[in-house]
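Could you show me just one protein sequence together with its fold in token form as a worked example?
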Amino acid sequence: MNPYERYVLPRMIDIACGMGDVMKARSRIVPQAVGEVLEIGIGTGLNLQFYRPDQVTSIVGVDPAAQMQALASRRAVDCAIPVEMIAVDVQGIHAVDNRFDTIVMTFTLCSITDPVPALREMLRVLKPGGRLLFCEHGLAPDASVRRWQNRLTPIWKPFAGGCHLNRDIPQLLRDGGFNIGDLATEYLPGPRPMTYIYSGWAQQEQLT
């Protein structure tokens, strides 16, 4: 890991992902979590303030970027819910099948190297009837914006921790075995190629 990835990138991500409108988007999703929660890509712990202690019993945060855990650990001190952080790849979640009541994933799917296997691993550890709560930026509906997303992604990825601007979030969720129960979309203020978000919840796909 180079010095940029170790020291600069975590701070940049913390600032960018902690901006006002991004935090508002988080605040609409995270409080829906209940029971035992798995947070995918806990990063610097920006979501911890939004969990409700009367609804959530514990939080396990998974993130391959161990260098971000110093900031997350400081935020966990102020959280009224027990928090455990694990620096492992999402594709190797060390948990038994059907363990978690809720999985929370915010602004994370863009940077997972192989998103479909990762989503299937999330499905494995999610209880039947449990929900994946998500808030993710991705592929925009406007053709002109999509063109810029496709142009910028190869340049953007090395500087933004592997972030893809052009991922089709609903399709990835479906490919991972999830059925989307609720979905809202919007542009946040800012450059359009980077600010189109999908938020809502998904459950295990029902077989007929």
Residues 110 and 164 are 5 Å apart (CA to CA). The helical segments are 3-17, 20-29, 69-77, 115-125, 143-156, 169-175, 192-195.
